[in-house]
Amino acid sequence: MKIKEFPDTQEKPPETRVSLTRVGVTGVKKLIKIQRKNKRPIILLPEFNVYVNLPDYQKGAHMSRNPEAINEIIEDTITQPETQLESLCAKLVKHLLEKHEYAITAETEAKSEYMITKVSPVTKRKTQETTKIIAKAIATKNKDNTITVKKMIGAEVVGMTVCPCAQESTEQNTKDKLKEFLDDKTIEKVMNVVTSASHNQRGIGTILIEVPEKQDINVEDIINIIQDSMSSPVCEILKRPDENHIVTKAHENPVFVEDCVRNMIKKLIIKYPELPAESQLTIRQVNEESIHQHNAFAEKTTTMGELRKEMGAN
Amino acid sequence: MKIKEFPDTQEKPPETRVSLTRVGVTGVKKLIKIQRKNKRPIILLPEFNVYVNLPDYQKGAHMSRNPEAINEIIEDTITQPETQLESLCAKLVKHLLEKHEYAITAETEAKSEYMITKVSPVTKRKTQETTKIIAKAIATKNKDNTITVKKMIGAEVVGMTVCPCAQESTEQNTKDKLKEFLDDKTIEKVMNVVTSASHNQRGIGTILIEVPEKQDINVEDIINIIQDSMSSPVCEILKRPDENHIVTKAHENPVFVEDCVRNMIKKLIIKYPELPAESQLTIRQVNEESIHQHNAFAEKTTTMGELRKEMGAN
Amino acid sequence: MKIKEFPDTQEKPPETRVSLTRVGVTGVKKLIKIQRKNKRPIILLPEFNVYVNLPDYQKGAHMSRNPEAINEIIEDTITQPETQLESLCAKLVKHLLEKHEYAITAETEAKSEYMITKVSPVTKRKTQETTKIIAKAIATKNKDNTITVKKMIGAEVVGMTVCPCAQESTEQNTKDKLKEFLDDKTIEKVMNVVTSASHNQRGIGTILIEVPEKQDINVEDIINIIQDSMSSPVCEILKRPDENHIVTKAHENPVFVEDCVRNMIKKLIIKYPELPAESQLTIRQVNEESIHQHNAFAEKTTTMGELRKEMGAN
Amino acid sequence: MKIKEFPDTQEKPPETRVSLTRVGVTGVKKLIKIQRKNKRPIILLPEFNVYVNLPDYQKGAHMSRNPEAINEIIEDTITQPETQLESLCAKLVKHLLEKHEYAITAETEAKSEYMITKVSPVTKRKTQETTKIIAKAIATKNKDNTITVKKMIGAEVVGMTVCPCAQESTEQNTKDKLKEFLDDKTIEKVMNVVTSASHNQRGIGTILIEVPEKQDINVEDIINIIQDSMSSPVCEILKRPDENHIVTKAHENPVFVEDCVRNMIKKLIIKYPELPAESQLTIRQVNEESIHQHNAFAEKTTTMGELRKEMGAN
Predict the structure, then answer these.
(1) Strand pairing partners for B2?
(2) What is the CA radius of gyration of chain C?
(3) Which one of A9, B219, C269, D67 is CB 3.0 to 4.6 Å from D165, fit for a cystine?
(4) pLDDT (tens digit, 9 = 90+) per residue, B151-165?
């Protein structure tokens, strides 16, 4: 069958001649297989947003080329498996520039559930649990027609946070009451074995970090850094001894929303000495306060270079 | 200007002759003023869903009559102020039956933010805080052309819940360690002044209750019942002494997700002896567990009559 | 290491002795593999809610047994592959009754993205696209200790709907204007080749259907029934000739929100003559009207028996 | 009653000495009254996020001061009414700097439903309809202790968009078929009275624009600019002649997602010649494509100065 041709409405000049920063499609979901080095492959179900810039002389971008580009890159993984979601995104933005010949920048964001294995701390129940990973890539066509690619990788992880301030006031209350019938030395011994109450809640830590195109970092390391920066990880299956362990450990490690961000920063600086100074970073923590309806929030946006300078670590 | 007439496509017979249970519009937001008895008026911004049944001989309902009906009822409140969101819903379903002459049932649901005033427990900071209220009404045309209306009122309130199980195990741990250097009697005195840690989190309590058309209940009573059934209310502004008070009181009143539902039931039975036996009830609690990514859930669906029988209160 | 034992707080009697309808956990996400008969296995990422009833003599359900039960059932699929999400749910509710010895009903709901393959209608571009599937199961322990299981399967699918009413008025406008310079016979010929405008939008069709425990239906048939009941399916990659085809076909098949529900009903009755009369059904359509901010909604809730009687098909 | 004092845990030095970009609370909802000049007051229910920076020497920000600051600013409006949401935000950030003496930047975002009145185009039905408005403000303490404030105002409005590409191909199809029985001149006359089908859908336009502290712009002008940049506004109550009018007008004005952004740009340039060159702008359109599950997206981020230069309007 001969396919009928229709006019290319997109190619016409627009009425108002002004260029656009980003034009594309959002909310394209795909099932993909990532073949990690020396490990079992993992299944992801990311949602992609993809964009290109649009010059002022063209009415519309050719939108159907965007889901086409996603599809072609995913099909390529059958013969050339990708090892990371962010390297797949890097390939995708380069392919977008090939397909949209009028564009000089292409951008993609992908967010996916990511399964990790957790083991409960005492009874050692093993379980599969979800976190979220985030990948981004931006390709820019240079004047000499070479292409520069920036890629970013990150994760969003739920953990438990215990408030140090409320705990300190609970402890003071207890001490004041103990003074009525115990001496100072015994009080000290008692306080050493008491786990004083505080408010605690789900916290959500987020790290997003720029990585050079040819460098790879393991997203599970990022997940661990986020998790270890709160009072305790959460866990799906907790038998009573596990629950007791987690509650006790969390209360021995109370953290403010600000502490979580600073803990992540400290771990990142130590873990990635090889990341270049210009690498951009977003580190964020949101605590769903159990004593309020609103959330507590803390964030640091910076570069690795600035961070090292600020911390005297450079 | 003469307005051109167009064919009534809705009125035609449908291809497949089968009646429909509910046809209507969802997501209609309106700003309304409720004039409570002997109190300041309150402003609500409810989102309405409205439906009628559709007989098998008619292709489509006349959809534009639904937002029209909402508008007309709201305009009526200017001259005849409504005192409750659920009584406004009751009027609305009767009006829907007038406008859709082919319908024999009409139904509406409205959900709105509802502002309450809170005072922090120690430093007495006053603040305006949101909760959610829910109202429903169903009108049925009887064979003798009279109309029966059922109305329901409810609320969804955030509070704080402390787990009794984790607290009991923390206490046991402390006692076991105190035994190494204190006698039983002193341990008892110590435990009396210690606030032992547990996991705690935001809980969301929901009550939805059927009320006879001519009877009124105050939704703020429902809000208080929900709030008082958890370990503690939450509060927007808490200075340190307030935070200490809330954390301490909450830990003196640990509750499971099941306890919250049972507490609400008990308070409802006592508060509303005049509600008829056939009044339907939904009582629900969802706790956003701080030690897990998933939520804990408990629910009771029943009637006042069954509930009184079960509790031997009838 | 000997694991320390802690008190079973859940087992104690509650303060308020009243039974609860449903107690459990919500929002547990799992990656599972379904091994369909004679087909490639599929990967699902369902979110599970699981509940049991709680008798009046017990303070709390043993919550950790719920995610444990999900895990054990999923692990079983490694040796005994499941062929359907709803049969996995049926196994799960039976297992929940084993683990919660005090419960007589157990319930689960699972909702998952589900990948289907679509081919664009003219240029035959192939693409992977998501829909949502829903499965439920309820197990009830009978007096003779046997267990009765009900299972339900369904889907939620996005398609395109064109309004017949707006189209009819556009057609009338065109005819009125053509009368000024064309004769009736030519007008008829012209109208036969014109695709008259209407408003059109995304519609979301939902079917949920009860299936006997030992019977299997293919969820892709349900997906097709939903999709074929709207004006046209949507498609991720549409080149210009595909887009033209879809827009033209959709406008040749305009449907109200009510028509979508009736179309689904008609197709279900024909497709499943073997479903028992007591099978419960929910058929729903929500259209995200392009001329309004609110949605149009239509729903039929019934049983196969009542439906057949109403349609004279029994 | 003497209120007990507790330790100021926040004031201590943090373990990891690094400053944070933004620390604060998110999701604080308030009912406020805005007293517009020479107009009826309006009621808003905005949700506020507020942040300050945190120096490296301080463990935590004093979080309770944030909802306190919001409360105090809202209470001030009783005696000194605010005329705009963004001017209230500007006051709030200055007050945040007073309350957090260690901070040198303060930031707030507020998003609220905003009621407008709409009249249906033919039958003149009047109705209240919601849109969303957005306000932001950032205060920076300068070295000489003066404070610089930036404020931004914007809106998010739903309208209807008709695709020009699909419409052009439908028209070509019709013309090709008309050629079989009509001459070119008659075809031209016929096409002039035909409203050819296309796909159409809800679009969401967003404008966010920086305004000098002492300058005021009317957010309803922004709402109108967004609405007028699509194929047609949506409307809550449309009788058949209204629906016909809207569908016809929208199809006479087909626009791509890119056209919507360019239309908004053109109208902004004309409407606000007095806005300074450094004013930042975000203009965005998202179309919920009726032929796809995914959305189309276009965005321009720039300053008034750059925009004027690009459009030769400077």
Answers:
(1) none
(2) 25
(3) A9
(4) 999 999 999 999 999
Name the residue among A213, A253, A208 with its Cα closest to residue A231. Answer: A253
Q: Give residue D200's pLDDT band: very low, low, confident or very high (50, 70, 90).
A: very high
Give the residue among A172, A189, A198, A177 at the shortest CA–CA distance from B189.
A177
Location of structure tokens 């957090």: D100
Cα D22 from chain centre: 23
Work out the minimum CA distance from A79 to partner chain D, whole angstroms: 28
From the list B166, B195, B232, the residue facing A174 with the nearest CB is B195
Question: Are the Cβ atoms of D45 and B6 closer than 8 angstroms?
Answer: no
3-state SS, residue C306: helix
Tokens 């030519």, residue? C186
d(CA D237, CA D167): 26
| B13 in Cβ contact with B57 (< 8 Å) | yes
Q: Which of D157, D240, D246, D248 to mutate to test the interface with B (most CBs of B within 10 A)?
A: D240
Q: C294 vs B24: CB contact, 8 Å cut-off?
A: no
List of chain A residues whose C-beta atoms are within 8 Å of the C-beta of residue C238: 64
C65-79 and C85-99 helices cross at what angle (nearest 10)?
130
Q: Which residues of C touch A244 (CB under 8 A)?
A: 4, 6
| pLDDT greater than 90 at residue B312 | no
Which amino acid, residue B200?
N
Residue with tokens 């030690």: B291
Amino acid A122: pLDDT: 96
Residue environment code for A187-217, b if the CB has 16+ CB neighbours within 10 A, otherwise e: bebbeebbbbbbbbbbbbbbbbbbbeeeeeb
Whether pLDDT at A110 is above 60:
yes
Number of neighbouring beta carbons within 10 Å of residue D189: 16
The closest alpha carbon to C132, from C110, C101, C151, C103, belongs to: C110
The set of chains that have 3 or more CB pairs under 8 A with A is B, C, D
Question: Which token pair is A117?
Answer: 């294995």
Q: Which pLDDT band, with edges at 50, 70 and 90, does C1 fall under? A: low
Partner-chain contact C244 D291, CB within 8 Å? no
| Rounded Cα–Cα distance for residues C49 and B296 (Å) | 10
Task: Kindly report, residue by residue over B97-130, the tens digit of the pLDDT.
Answer: 999 999 999 999 999 999 999 999 999 999 999 9
- The residue whose two tokens read 């975000």 is D282
Q: Which chains reach chain B with 3 or more Cβ–Cβ distances below 8 angstroms? A: A, C, D
Whether residue D243 and residue C166 make contact (CB cut-off 8 A), yes or no, is yes
Query: Position A260: which residue type?
Result: C
Q: Supply A234's token pair.
A: 């959460």
The Cα–Cα gap between A202 and A295 comes to 10
CA distance C256 to C110: 30
d(CA C284, CA C272): 18
Query: Is the CB of B234 less than 8 angstroms away from the CB of A160?
Result: no
What is the rounded distance in angstroms from the CA atom of residue D247 to the CA atom of residue D229?
A: 16
* DSSP label at residue D133: E
Contact between B255 and A314 (Cβ < 8 Å): no
pTM of the model: 0.96
Cα separation of A178 and D201, whole Å? 69
Of A28, A49, A256, the CB nearest to D59: A256
Tell me, what's the pLDDT at A313? 56
Q: Does residue D126 have a pLDDT over 80?
A: yes
- For the cut 60, the answer to whether the pLDDT of residue B313 exceeds it is no
Residue-wise pLDDT tens digits, A57-103: 999 999 999 999 999 999 888 788 888 999 999 999 999 999 999 99
- Inter-chain residue contact A20 with D298, CB threshold 8 Å: yes
Tokens of B108: 């509406």
- Closest chain B residue by Cα to residue D10: B240
Q: Which residues share a beta bridge with B23?
A: B52, C298
Cα–chain center distance at A129: 16
Cα dihedral angle (A260, A261, A262, A266), rounded to 10 degrees? 100
